[in-house]
Amino acid sequence: MTTEHASLRRPERDHALALLGEMLRIRRFEDKAAELYQAGKIRGFLHLYDGEEAVAVGAMQSIAADDSIVSTYREHGHALVRGLPLDCLMAEMYGKANGCSRGRGGSMHFFDASRRFYGGHGIVGSGLPFAVGLAMADKLRDEKHVTACLFGDGAVAEGIFHESLNLAALWKLPVLFLCENNLYAMGTGIERALSETDIALKARSYAIPAEAVDGMDVLAVEASARRAADAVRQGKGPVFLEARTYRFRGHSMADPQLYRGKEEVAEWMKRDPITNFEERLRDWGFLSDSDVRDMEGSISAEIDAAVAFAEAGPWEPVEDLTRYVTSR
Amino acid sequence: MKRMTYREAVRSALREALQNDPRVFIMGEDVGRYGGYYAVTHGLLEEFGPERVRDTPLSEAAYVGAGIGAAVNGMRPIVEVTTINFSLLALDQILNSAATIRYMSGGQINIPLVVRMATGAGRQLAAQHSHSLEGWYAHIPGISVLTPATVADGRGLLLAALNEPDPVFIFEHATLYPLEGEVDEDAGPAKIGEATVRRTGNHVTLVTYGGSLGKTMEAAGQLADEGIEAEVIDLRSLRPLDTATILASVEKTHRAVVVDEAWRTGSFAAEVGAQIMEGGFDLLDWPVQRVCSAEVPMPYAKHMEDAALPQASTIVQVVKEMFQ
């Protein structure tokens, strides 16, 4: 792994607390989503992000408001860090009209055009060419934006991954490819899916600068992503980042997890990006018990308010069933 | 009015779009330096440069997907997919993204994308370059499916597509490219979703589109010699479908035949038949008939290919049986 020692450098206290707060906010959102799924309030597929929070939070620090983001069906964390209102995300999972996709997308398809958050894609790998196109438009207009394209290790086995990397490199497009390698494509371990498991190496074979980073370390991800985004902004073409991470829960709520042992999960949980970062902040004297209580308190209040917002939200009238299929 | 080929008519619309709208660019395999596989884009690279007439590698899924992304981000891409069989490589992008994202996002995101491709048989290209799958595309809500059958429509429907806020797929029958016709270059865009009566008649309605229009017109001429006046409807747009024009004709003729180069089973011809049954069952004096391709992968040998495709003689025969 080529993680540099940026993670050892101390950040400013306020910034460090903000990073912790964002990670914690995702974790608690997912906890609530799981609870509401069990209670039957949220249906459909629900893919939770527990364990991978450092990737979203670290990476998004260098993505500006006029940059674009393309994500996957495991996108709650990405959407939250991007600033999509938490209550609209909750309402979307309820299927309500005040949801971020007016109840037409659900957990897998969060969208917010005003924040340039372009989904929420449920077909593995299908967001990559979309991101290539967004970046192409920016480049054609000579605008120096970044398109951040998030996807998992599962996408790497898809043909579209290779086609998209080739196009982005060939046309020197401003895409930051960010692979969240959580080691499993649903239940298929990476060593059972890829003949070459070094994903960054694959990107380099398309002449794209690439590196792997410890995806359980928010500061390491932040530093790598910042370098990558800066390089993309130089206009020399795409950059590829592989964040090595792990999902603590199953692929979706329907997953009995027969394909991995409890010991393996327990080992990775020792590297929990939130608790470990919290410990470091305490070591540095940045964090007290009351800071954590305040953080938890305000997150909990926000989530409670979001649940109330979703519960009170109206259902889209069935008469509007075909609305938005086309513009006319 | 100006005389030109179908190929030139499409090119004139492309050139006009490139001249008038800085958001427009073309991309596809060999659209630039090669001049387009069917020479539709010939000369445009020299005129507009490689950023606006962009050659792509053989990556149908990626460049159609990139067209979607560029359209979302303020551009007006015109993507050329060489031929309809290749478009299957991009089907995921077309169905799961282009046709879906507007709805799935609750109407937040428009995709003003135009995709052109050649369709159809008749050039002895065998079973991987000859099929007529536009009916599959017409199955998909969220996109428009256009099938220009005349030189004027080659231009007019493309101009119309470029005014649409949502994805439009244009299927150009490959045998039409050398066809010559009169084009009014001041006519502007055609209207999407409007079928046209290409020949009037009182005895039978022949519904067709795209590459089958010529054969159907030929059949109508032969039928007239035998005293049967056929009305020929050119659908022009499979989605949205102009059912009203079809039914208005059937109200007059009480008989209908659908001519469609696609396979019969599960075909667009079946859809047209069902629309007539649902909206005009009482009008019919005879069951709706279909003239479609034989249910085989397209063969190479000329006599076999001819036998597999709808021909004017087949249409004449089917119509005459309706009057016995």
Please describe what this structure looks like.
The complex is a heterodimer of chains A (328) and B (324). With 328 residues, chain A is α/β, with parallel strands linked by helices. Chain A is 43% helix and 12% strand. In chain A, the strands form two sheets. In chain A, strands 2-1-3-4-8-7 form a six-stranded parallel β-sheet, sandwiched between helices. A two-stranded antiparallel ribbon of chain A has the order 5-6. Chain A is globular. By secondary structure, chain B is of the alpha/beta class. Chain B contains 13 helices and 14 strands. In chain B, the strands form three sheets. A seven-stranded mixed β-sheet of chain B has the order 3-2-4-5-7-6-12, with helices on both faces. Chain B has a five-stranded mixed β-sheet with strand order 9-11-10-13-14, sandwiched between helices. In chain B, strands 1-8 form a two-stranded antiparallel ribbon. In chain B, strand 6, helix 8 and strand 7 form a beta-alpha-beta unit. The mean pLDDT of chain B is 97. The interface between A and B is large, with 47 and 40 residues.
